[in-house]
Amino acid sequence: MERRLVTIMAADVVGYSARMELSESETIRQLSALTHMIGEQVVGHNGRVFSRAGDGFLSEFPSPVMPVQSGFEIQRILLASSQEGSNHFQLRMGIHLADAIVDGEDLLGDGVNIAARVEGLAEPGSILITQTVFDQVKRTAKLRFEDWGERPLKNISEPIRLYRVVGELDSHSYITGIPPTLKRDDGQDLRPIKRMQGFYLTSKLRVVTRI
Length: 211
Fold this sequence. Notes:
The chain is α+β, with helices and mostly antiparallel strands. The protein has five helices and 13 strands.
């Protein structure tokens, strides 16, 4: 039995059944366009979509950074579409790094199941990643993350710590899983805002508000 370490990205369309009830033909047309866009973004980040089930997508990547960046770009494209006034789809996404069982072109095992469970907890239009992914991407993905704490997952024996992708970092910004304690000009400690991981730093190393 062949196994390999991969990063799994699970994505699912929000409210797909309700859309199908309203207009099957239009929903199918939009899903076809979405499928094409997701395929392009996944391949462009060195991944592949290995499973499709209705409105759900499962993709694999050799590096944890790639699916996080791919997922962020997909969500950004969909957000831009909504701002232009189109009746766009929203996606929930979950990303997990784990050992998977190779079954032909398919991947199986707890790692795939966990990615799907994490996706189910995500808010519409958002991406959740597990601790194993966060540990690998926190310094290289150039994105900001919000710590969601440990969450129980259905049929998974232990809770898993999750992080939500919340935006891009500026060019002079840095992110870390455990933010350092910095000092303001008056000597008081600076703390992350609303559990956000990291601080915005200027060239003079003064902390400024990130929101």
